[in-house]
């Protein structure tokens, strides 16, 4: 689609762009000619840092670290499998 898309850290940062306290989303329909160059720089940085790396960012989300409940559940399942294998063998 080619639409530049990024996620901003918090609503107040985005709100500063539109002159409000907070803002959840922003769509630009018209840009002043003197601001066009700055907008193009912003679009290029957004595309390279977020849009083109979307698959990479999505794959590494979370870091693969389990919480205590999930780790305990997996540990319990593995112990049950090991016990079952031990009974089958001996």
UniProtKB/TrEMBL annotation:
SUPFAM superfamilies: L30e-like. Belongs to the eukaryotic ribosomal protein eL8 family. Residues 1-39 form the Ribosomal protein eL8/eL30/eS12/Gadd45 domain. One of its GO terms (cellular component) is cytosolic large ribosomal subunit. Keywords: Ribonucleoprotein, Ribosomal protein. It holds the Pfam family Ribosomal_L7Ae. One of its GO terms (molecular function) is RNA binding. This is 60S ribosomal protein L7a. Component of the ribosome.
């Amino acid at each position: 689609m080619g639409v530049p898309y990024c996620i901003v850290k918090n609503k107040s940062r985005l709100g500063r762009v539109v002159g409000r306290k907070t803002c959840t989303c922003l769509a630009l329909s018209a840009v002043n000619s003197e601001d066009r160059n700055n907008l193009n720089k912003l679009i290029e940085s957004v595309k390279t840092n977020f849009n083109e790396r979307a698959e990479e960012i999505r794959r590494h989300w979370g870091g693969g670290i389990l919480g205590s409940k999930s780790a305990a559940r997996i540990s319990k399942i593995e112990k049950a499998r090991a016990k079952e294998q031990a009974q089958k063998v001996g």
